[in-house]
Design goal:
Elements (H helix, E strand, L loop, with lengths): L2 H9 L1 E5 L5 E4 L7 H7 L3 E5 L11 H16 L5 E8 L5 E8 L3 H10 L4 E6 L5 E4 L2
Antiparallel strand pairs: 1-2, 1-4, 3-5, 3-6, 4-5, 6-7
């Protein structure tokens, strides 16, 4: 991944929808906000999307189908909770995403690779949000 793309990931705001009224924002290299830390507890978490593989735009219908396949795969994982989310970049772009609680990096790496993602954001309990590059 080139440095420009890595910087775009770092500047992105990763918004998680916890319920009808509550949104919380993750930032790389910072700990989770308190409301997300409460949801996560001691479990691993990830923020992932199936949109725009390899950081290349593709038609919305293809993105939506891939995102649905990712959601279905996650819902079939035992003891995993999934919340709607959206990544919003500083350049005005956004991608529907998922906040996943309870899946380990082995599982998430496999799903990210299957959907040809370059990276995703993840963390463990009270630790900082980290960018996990897959190349």
């Amino acid at each position: 991944m080139d440095e420009l793309l890595r910087e775009a990931f770092r500047e992105t705001a990763y918004h998680v929808n916890l319920d009808t009224l509550t949104w919380s924002t993750i930032r790389i290299d910072l700990p989770l906000p308190a409301e997300l830390a409460t949801v996560v507890g001691t479990r691993p978490w990830s923020f992932i999307t199936a949109w725009n593989p390899q950081a290349r735009r593709r038609p919305a219908q293809d993105n939506m189908a891939a995102q649905q396949a990712l959601l279905t795969a996650l819902k079939n994982q035992p003891a995993v909770s999934v919340y709607p989310a959206i990544g919003v970049g500083s350049g005005g772009w956004s991608e529907p995403s998922l906040f996943v609680v309870g899946a380990d990096t082995t599982t998430m790496d496999a799903l990210a690779r299957h959907h040809r993602q370059l990276a995703y954001v993840h963390g463990q309990a009270g630790g900082a949000a980290l960018l996990r590059e897959l190349e």
